[in-house]
Amino acid sequence: MPEARQAARNGLSDAVERALRHLQDTQSSDGSWHGDYGGPVFLLPTLIAATHIVGAPFDQETEADFVRYFRHEQNPDGGWPLHSGGESYVYTTALCYVAQRLLGIPAEDPDLRRGRAWLLDRGGAASVPPWGKFLLALLNLYDYDGVMPVPPELWLLPKALPAHPSRFWCHSRMVYLPMSYLYGIRAQAPLTPALRALRDEIFCEPFEGFDFRASQTRCAASDVYTPLSRTYRVLNGLLNGYEAVAGKSLRDRANAYVLDQVRQEDENTNFICIGPINKVLNMLCWHFAEHGGERVAAHRRQLPEYLWKGDHGTHMQGYNSSRLWDTAFAVQAVCATGRMDQARAMLEEAHGYIERNQVLEDTPDRARYFRDASKGGWPFSNRKHGWPISDCTAEGLKSAIALQAHVAQPISAERLHDAADLILDWQNGDGGWPTYEKARTPSWMEALNPSLVFADIMVDHSYVECTSACLQALVGYRARYGDTARAARIEQAIERGRAFLLKRQRADGSWIGSWGICFTYGTWFAVSGLRAVGLAADATPIRRAAAFLMSHQLPDGGWGETIESCKQDSYVSCPDGQVVMTSWAVLSLLQSDQADSEAVRAGVAFLRSRQQPDGGWPDETIAGVFNRTCAITYDNYRKIFGLWALAAAEPCMER
Ligand code: LAN
């Protein structure tokens, strides 16, 4: 055996064992892995604003820990970033400033002074992007004249219109829903001395007499990623015209319609809601509609689902955990080690979590509430949340199949058939898979994105990651249940999905990722998907992918990308290798004809050099992203993908 290979091999199985044990040691009692799902900084101040309006503060200890979080996230320039570690935004600076004031920090506090100076230098509240202005209006810190109109009546338009709100990507739809109600009733907190003081602090001009209407579409350059389209500007003019003449009876009807939709979303999700923003806004709807009452209380009871107490304070997470997703990956990483017997107890527990958290029924009256089928799907977090997702369903199905022979009570074939059916139904016309729902409107509807801060929020496009995961799941399902009634549909779906992935490969051999940073993530998914559907390790697309990855390997043997890759649409390296991205790159190369290469050996050596005595890996740059601009933390990725990459490399190194 050549010396280099021998060196690479030495101790590798010990590293795998240690990583495996670390995974085992950190498994939660419910069989899943729990970790921080933070990162976005705009969530906590939104929550604090809402609880202030509702008049339901947190206990003192928690509030002090919120402040600790804000202090930790503040940038040296005084501002607050959109996501941990990012550059300062006017949006988050205004919101974090206001939230801390509401928590009782005085305006003269030196950190708040710095924050205020940064904000006022960039135009103050008038330069806050639309969602921020909306929140300020709720707090009575902005006039509704300065808020881009979101009339609830749009929900009453003919459903066949491509711009009907029911056709938006579900996350935008579910945020727009409560927003349109709150806008429709011009919901506003009563003006208190504390709020009056804030009006003097966050504006560059006196609040009284300020031309709010003219400020509607104003936004600081630091915050703009997707400028308002001309189409939206025209639409915004029309909506303002409509607002001037809107009649009471239609408004009342629209409000009642919207509130019923809000009610159904709350009930479908056990008051967790699809995401953190609509969670908070739905709670506010009930505060204003029912002046408190049982629904507000039910919302408050579920708030802890979203909170995470970390080393640097307590914050609001981007979802009510990533448990199902992480558990499905953890299972696959363990299976890659081949040490099923040794890991039997851990796998049994993990399987239990996956089994208990499959969604077993559709939501009630689902057509009326614009919901696709859910039965058989898996969510990202837990069953209580209730919204199944294409790739979470795929990863759930893959891991359930992988564990069938290793657990006492495997999930029934019926339930796996349901999952396969759902995956088949979700495939988009272009052959790819969306996140939650089959695309309901053409891609050009992105022109109606009013957020300025995010991209790709209007349409549930087809994604490389979702497509790859669904293809892998269908291939696994076909191998296990080849002769079911769906066989022909599966063949066709696989063919179309494969064509989609091939078409999305870029000239440089990479694929862009949308939910992880960035090209290493997208390329890992695409390579795994294409290999699963039958491409050979030396097929041209796989070779091109390998060449792409190898061209970005860092001198330390690792790979690392920053969120700038997502924003700029081209590879932007970190100075040093990162464990998660290195793992994705190694896992991709291992599936190519470069499995036995210096690049892989150096990647594995990098991973081993970073492994800690307990078998885990230290914290590093954020690996997750959404809507191109906002990073989100996947706490468990280091230990899961680190293990997976080492385990997958083990047999190659031993050849
Ligand atoms: C998520 C979390 C999970 C993620 C994956 C399953 C990993 C992905 O493969 C598909 C997309 C999905 C479901 C996803 C979409 C966008 C979400 C919901 C998030 C990143 C978590 C938070 C984010 C949500 C939009 C944040 C709220 C902010 C708004 C702009 C509404």
Question: How many helices in DSSP terms?
Answer: 25
Look at the helices and sheets and give the structural class.
Answer: mainly alpha
CATH architecture of the largest domain: Alpha/alpha barrel
Helix content: 40-55%
Number of strands: 8
Oligomer state of the chains in this structure: single chain
Could you describe the 3D structure shown?
Pathway: Secondary metabolite biosynthesis; hopanoid biosynthesis. This protein is mainly alpha-helical and 655 residues long. The protein has three domains: 43-316, Alpha/alpha barrel (Glycosyltransferase), CATH 1.50.10; 321-504, Alpha/alpha barrel (Glycosyltransferase); 514-524 and 531-540 and 551-655, no CATH class. Helices cover 50% and strands 4% of the residues. It has 25 helices and eight strands. The strands form four sheets. The protein has a two-stranded antiparallel ribbon with strand order 1-2. Strands 3-4 form a two-stranded antiparallel ribbon. A two-stranded antiparallel ribbon has the order 5-6. A hairpin with a 3-residue loop joins strand 7 (624-626) and strand 8 (630-632). Helix 8 (170-184) runs parallel beside helix 12, helix 11 (248-268) packs across helix 12 and helix 14 packs antiparallel against helix 15 (344-356). The longest helix has 21 residues, at 248-268. The model has no long low-confidence stretch (mean pLDDT 97). The structure holds lanosterol.
